[in-house]
């Protein structure tokens, strides 16, 4: 009986007893947009701050919301906090 060159071993997806969430990767630009949204800036204000078009801001926000599977800004911010994309004390002085 011939043996296969490739052997696979099953690896656990996560360690037993840990509650780590899968890491969600967003681009640095999406992170910056998220930060400005969390500060309450409008798309127009974000575009002016980052020197990009309002349409580009809209696309970044759309992609963030799709990636986080949310439908509005309140859900976006809640999910961002849960995924540790924003610090827990964000915006507090």
Brief summary:
The protein has 4 helices and no strands.
Structural commentary:
The protein has 4 helices and no strands. It is mostly helical and 93 residues long. The protein has a domain at 28-82: Winged helix-like DNA-binding domain superfamily/Winged helix DNA-binding domain (Arc Repressor Mutant, subunit A). Helix 2 packs across helix 3 (54-68). The N and C termini lie far apart (70 Å). The relative contact order is 0.14.
Question: What integer value in Å does the Rg equal?
Answer: 19 Å
List segments where confidence is low: pLDDT < 50 over at least 5 consecutive residues: 8-20
CATH fourth-tier homologous superfamily of the domain at 28-82: Winged helix-like DNA-binding domain superfamily/Winged helix DNA-binding domain
CATH class of the domain at 28-82: Mainly Alpha
Helices, strands, pairings?
Layout: H1 28-38, H2 43-50, H3 54-68, H4 73-82
Helix pairs in contact: 1-3, 2-3
Keywords:
93 residues, mainly alpha, Arc Repressor Mutant, subunit A, globular
């Amino acid at each position: 009986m011939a043996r296969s060159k490739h052997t696979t071993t099953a690896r656990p997806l996560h360690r037993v007893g840990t509650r780590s969430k899968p890491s969600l990767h967003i681009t640095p630009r999406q992170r910056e947009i998220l930060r400005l949204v969390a500060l309450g800036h409008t798309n127009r204000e974000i575009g002016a701050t980052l020197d990009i078009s309002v349409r580009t801001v809209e696309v970044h926000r759309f992609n963030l919301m799709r990636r986080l599977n949310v439908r509005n800004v309140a859900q976006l911010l809640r999910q961002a906090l849960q995924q540790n994309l924003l610090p827990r004390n964000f915006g507090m002085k």
